[in-house]
């Protein structure tokens, strides 16, 4: 009897093995570019945070110049665990720490440069912020990644071959001493004004070759082979092309990237026209990351405490980043104390709670699911059970010659839903061109929604809750379909009210805008309380405001154009005041860092309050228009100017 049982078990095992082997050999052939194992792990991560905390925080700036004294950096209540646990409560699975930003201040005791955390008073020069975040991530079960800026506004060697050796040695230190990394994060920061060891000058580099990216990225591949490399163009993960965190409605994980002027594509030096959309049938699998900060800026600014993104805003971004097949990288900004602000902490927790509430239960599990075709009629291997098993890599598949097929969900009673989620088995490539969603209403099928570029995750968010007892999904592809998941979810009502940060601003009644370059309505656009209108000129680099009476103020706000055109945005400025509109004196000057990528409201805080009737905003440098160089550029564009009483 025991022998018979063993024989039966052996026969059963052989049958199961044979069935599995047959299913594997009968699987659809991969289509086009496919992800690597490290990219698959990245897709599974979906959400992580990017933490900015340097002396720049203590200077209330977005980009440090490289001249801050190390003594500035002394976060008296620093707690990495508080920051990382807040990220975890938001549903994020990893953190990337900015170990050195453009100011050049290394937040670990590096042997490569004197300008580092050992020169600060924090922990008597014995501290190591990279270690603290790495350990906090490990304690919270979070993945850990590193960003070390290639641009260094402090280092006297920047711009020379010697600096490249310094930078590569910094990466070697970081990638050898802080455990396994899930991301090696880079950007295209390529030179400009800086302290540079006291030279206080502008240094340019050849963006196409200075950082020797191929050999620099080889450091990651050798020391951290499981880490995905992010930069503008990949090679593993690409930038979405904006700092709003969202992609276009159609966004392929495949892409063909071209360089500028016929040179090889490199970070900061490539044709970025298709960064957001990707390329259907592109040569490489390089999915996008949507990066956006929880606050308007990447570094903490107390005057932005009322501008933390709402849960509704975060969920909208989630649906247009993770829900478009990419990932969400959310910027976190510790205060000068070294903690996340309570508002940031509570918002993250509420966002995480909402995600659990929305995606806790898949209503599609309650439906009887039927399909118009099953691959070789192998229902056990490629059937409908795979569509609701929460596995990314089990899937329903069609025969090779079936490129259009339907999935129908029949419920015993009408189901209420507002979100449809679709996934492909991306191990076989991005196969599906488009999908249409229908509901059966008034005895006929009616189209409810449609989508393209399904990929690893496609969230179709409806404008209102729908009720249906029958739902049909029409799938179109150039090859056999391999759909891994169907989800139906109902999102609760979310408060969408947000803040614009216009508190304590003077009303613009009776203001007059003047400029030698323009007359009429265009000038009014800079002070009409309408963000969608723009003052634009090519023949003057300044605009004057007459308040009609003296105002007492401590800060001025400049909002670049919000129409998606970054050309003409002010990069370097001078602010002047006058009592009579004829004699002017400078009251502030500086730069609006990162304005090209993040064209948000810029606040100029004055050293002290002033009283004046006339104000001049002078653009010393603006973002060039496409095809123009800085020396040729004279475009100036302004959406709004604000004046703050406090």
TrEMBL record:
GO terms for cellular component: lysosome. Keywords: Glycosidase, Hydrolase, Signal. One of its GO terms (molecular function) is alpha-L-fucosidase activity. Its EC number is 3.2.1.51. The keyword Hydrolase applies. Residues 492-646 form the F5/8 type C domain. Residues 1-23 form the signal peptide. PROSITE patterns: FA58C_3. SMART domains: Alpha_L_fucos (SM00812). Coiled coil: none annotated. This is alpha-L-fucosidase. It comes from Pedobacter cryoconitis.
């Amino acid at each position: 009897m025991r022998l018979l049982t063993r024989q039966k078990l052996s026969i059963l095992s052989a049958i199961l093995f044979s069935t599995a082997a047959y299913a594997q050999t009968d699987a659809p052939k991969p289509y086009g570019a496919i992800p690597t194992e490290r990219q698959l792990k990245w897709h599974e991560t979906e959400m992580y945070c990017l933490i900015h905390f340097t002396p720049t925080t203590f200077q209330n700036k977005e980009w440090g110049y490289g001249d801050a004294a190390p003594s500035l950096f002394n976060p008296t209540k620093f707690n990495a665990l508080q920051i990382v646990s807040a990220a975890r409560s938001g549903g994020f699975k990893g953190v990337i720490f900015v170990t050195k930003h453009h100011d050049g201040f290394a937040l670990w005791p590096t042997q490569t440069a004197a300008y580092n955390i050992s020169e600060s008073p924090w922990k008597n020069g014995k501290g190591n912020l990279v270690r603290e975040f790495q350990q906090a991530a490990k304690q919270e079960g979070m993945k850990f990644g590193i960003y070390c800026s290639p641009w260094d506004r402090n280092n006297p060697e920047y711009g020379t071959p010697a600096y490249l050796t310094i930078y590569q040695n910094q990466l070697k230190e970081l990638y050898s001493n802080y455990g396994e990394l899930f991301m090696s994060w880079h950007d295209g920061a390529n030179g400009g004004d800086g302290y540079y060891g006291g030279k206080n000058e502008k240094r340019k580099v050849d963006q196409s070759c200075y950082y020797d990216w191929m050999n620099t990225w080889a450091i990651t591949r050798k020391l951290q082979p499981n880490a995905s490399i992010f930069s503008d163009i990949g090679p593993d993960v690409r930038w979405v092309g904006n700092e709003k965190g969202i992609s276009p409605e159609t966004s392929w994980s495949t892409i063909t990237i071209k360089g500028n002027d016929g040179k090889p594509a490199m970070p900061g030096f490539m044709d970025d026209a298709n960064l957001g959309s990707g390329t259907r049938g592109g040569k490489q699998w390089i999915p996008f990351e949507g990066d956006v900060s929880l606050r308007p800026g990447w570094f903490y600014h107390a005057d932005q405490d009322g501008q933390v993104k709402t849960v509704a805003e975060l969920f909208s971004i989630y649906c247009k980043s993770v829900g478009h097949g990419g990932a969400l990288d959310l910027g976190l900004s510790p205060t000068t104390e070294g903690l996340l602000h309570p508002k940031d902490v509570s918002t993250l927790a509420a966002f995480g709670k909402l995600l659990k509430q929305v995606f806790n239960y898949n209503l599609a599990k309650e439906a009887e699911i039927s399909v118009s075709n099953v691959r070789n009629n192998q229902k056990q291997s490629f059937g409908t059970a795979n569509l609701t098993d929460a596995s990314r890599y089990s899937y329903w598949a069609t025969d090779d010659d079936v490129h259009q097929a339907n999935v129908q969900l029949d419920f015993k009673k009408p189901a209420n839903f507002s979100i449809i989620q679709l996934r492909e088995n991306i191990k076989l490539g991005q196969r599906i061109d488009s999908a249409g969603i229908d509901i059966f209403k008034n005895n006929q099928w009616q189209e409810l929604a449609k989508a393209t570029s399904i990929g690893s995750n496609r969230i179709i968010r409806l404008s209102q809750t729908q009720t249906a007892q029958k739902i049909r999904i029409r799938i179109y592809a150039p090859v056999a379909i391999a759909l891994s998941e169907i989800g139906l979810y109902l999102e609760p009502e979310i408060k969408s009210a947000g803040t614009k940060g216009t508190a304590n601003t003077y009303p613009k009644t009776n203001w007059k805008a003047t400029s030698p370059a323009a007359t009429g309505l265009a000038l009014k656009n800079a002070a009409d309380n309408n963000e969608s209108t723009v003052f634009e000129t090519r023949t003057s680099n300044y605009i004057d405001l007459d308040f009609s009476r003296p105002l007492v103020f401590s800060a001025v706000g400049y909002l670049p154009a919000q129409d998606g055109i970054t050309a003409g945005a002010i990069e370097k400025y001078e602010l002047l005041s006058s009592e009579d509109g004829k004699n002017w004196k400078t009251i502030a000057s500086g730069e609006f860092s990162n304005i090209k990528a993040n064209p948000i409201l810029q606040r100029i805080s004055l050293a002290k309050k002033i009283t004046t009737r006339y104000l001049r905003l002078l653009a010393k440098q603006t973002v060039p228009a496409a095809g123009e160089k800085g020396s040729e550029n004279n475009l100036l564009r302004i959406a709004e100017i604000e004046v703050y009483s406090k």
